[in-house]
Amino acid sequence: MLKIKSIKKVFGAGSINEKTAVNNVNLSLEEGEFVTVIGDNGAGKSTLLNCITGEYIIDEGQILLDGIDISYMPEYKRSQYIGRVFQDPLKGTAYDMTIAENLAIAYAKGKAKNLHPGIKKNDIKIFKEKLSLLNLGLEDRLNQKVGLLSGGQRQALTLLMATIVKPKLLLLDEHIAALDPKIAKKVLHLTGEIVEKQNISTMMITHNMKAALDYGSRTIMMHEGQVVLDIKGEEREGMTVETLINQFGKKAKHELKNDRMLLSK
Amino acid sequence: MNILIIQSALELGIIYALLALGSFISYRTLNFPDLTVEGSYTLGAAVSVMVTLAGYPYLSLLAAFAAGAVAGSVTALLSTKLKIQPLLAGILLMLGLYSINLKVMGNRANINLINQRNIYSIFEGTAFEEFQTLITASLLLAVILILLYFFLKTRLGFVLRATGDNQNMVRALGTNTDFTIILGLSLSNGLVGLCGAMIAHEQLFADVGMGIGMVVIGLASVIIGEVLFGTNTLFRRMIAVILGAIVYRFVIAIVLELGMPSTDLKLISAIIVAIALAMPVIKNKMDLARKKRANLRGGQGNAEN
């Protein structure tokens, strides 16, 4: 469903700071596949995701989503098909609007933005139902402003908003990295539940090696802008965090530099 | 303060509430510091006076709104499509509109409406004549408040409000933020143009320099309103902004009553806004000083024990 054909993204082309962040990446996602993405700092994971969302426009190659060429489509148009959760919990919600209003904006995704009432009575019922699945008590706080929520609560809400209208593709960019461990675990668990239940094709960047293996059906590792490891099925089943780190050392020809990754096994 | 001064302050406050609502949309809802206001206010007045002189006082209000909206959309286009900084885009419009406003007024610096039928003369010859400005302006404001409130509660209104909070989110949920900014600034400057028109009808003239200081007045009304009357819900906030505009007019009236020359008004306005903007910082400093003192006292008390 997602086909990435030899894409390339260069920053600061022609300057001394020129950096090829994504270098000739080919990747193909099946319908309903849940891919976890790991790699060093600066390996190009986020850049790859941002090329898919349209935040960056690729320099070479092609990106197809369900057969539609989205390579040069503006970000907001691609968003009709793509759900996103950012690393920064503040990025996914509008702080000065209520929980219900935030959900309503997400719920109206793909619908015309016209003079139709923002929230209808029926919507409230749906919102309460969906919020109760998060198990955070947010269903009783529909009319509170989102600015009053904690980072974890906001991130859980963003996850719900990204999936309340089923997207063709869900992109999670280290969405639990800025949360404290307890709520991070919960949001990660929720992510697994929602993705599985709705069978959403998903890419999740994580620095947590264990999470990368525990969740999803496929793991790719990036290094210096390229995909250096791509495992699924039996090979992935037998993989432990240790063997994964070993594999990484071989592929990258050096020790893993990302402390966070090592510490968080 | 006599009753006439109070009535006049109230009338002006109610009319300037439109400017305040316009500023509320750009500064608060869109988080866009918009200086177009200085030009679009005068543009609204100029267009309205010309259309009124042609014999259509009520139509002139629509024309003023439309003219203001066009001005706002140009600022928004400069900012979104050409990536010119919001403040600079506003300054460019402000400058350009000065010439346009003169052109609209037929290259005259001011035009009067004396002996013309204007929007407030609807009650002429009735018992309400004395309060005709107050009644007409209040009715118009009420209609606009209700329309604006319900607009901000529609799907379109939701994405407009979210744009000021978080553009990332709006784009990630499939709406073009360029579009919402253009729409919002049009609406905001449309209201400002309408305000200029209603002021021109109230004072019976339009002047090419009448827009100077309008950014500050609009912002002052928003801030005063929010500080005094709260920001809990959207409706409360909008009412607060309107009351802020009225309070501002009363402050000015009092200052004039105290014998300040009217030429000092702009300075007074600037000082009021500076104080209002600094309020949160001053409040924090005072809280900190109080805490410090309380802690010191507490510390000594412990030492004595």
Explain how this protein is built.
The complex is a heterodimer of chains A (265) and B (305). Chain A is α/β, with parallel strands linked by helices and 265 residues long. Chain A is built from ten helices and ten strands. Chain A has a six-stranded mixed sheet, with helices on both faces. Chain A is globular and about 55 Å long. The mean pLDDT of chain A is 91. The model of chain B has no long low-confidence stretch (mean pLDDT 93). A two-stranded antiparallel ribbon of chain B has the order 1-2. Chain B is globular. Chain B is 76% helix and 2% strand. By secondary structure, chain B is mainly α. Chain B has a domain of 208 residues. Chain B has eleven helices and two strands. At the A-B interface, helix 2 and helix 3 of A face helix 6 and helix 7 of B.
Low-confidence stretches of chain B: none
What is the number of helices of chain A? 10
Order of helices and strands of chain A: EEEHEEHEHHHEHEHEEHHH
Helix content of chain A: 25-40%
Radius of gyration of chain A over all CA atoms, rounded = 19 Å
Give the CA-CA distance, first to last residue of chain A: 31 Å
- The N- to C-terminal Cα distance of chain B equals 58 Å
Strand content of chain B: under 5%
Say which CATH homologous superfamily of the domain at 2-81 and 167-263 in chain A is assigned. P-loop containing nucleotide triphosphate hydrolases
Q: Give the percentage of residues in beta strands of chain A.
A: 15-25%
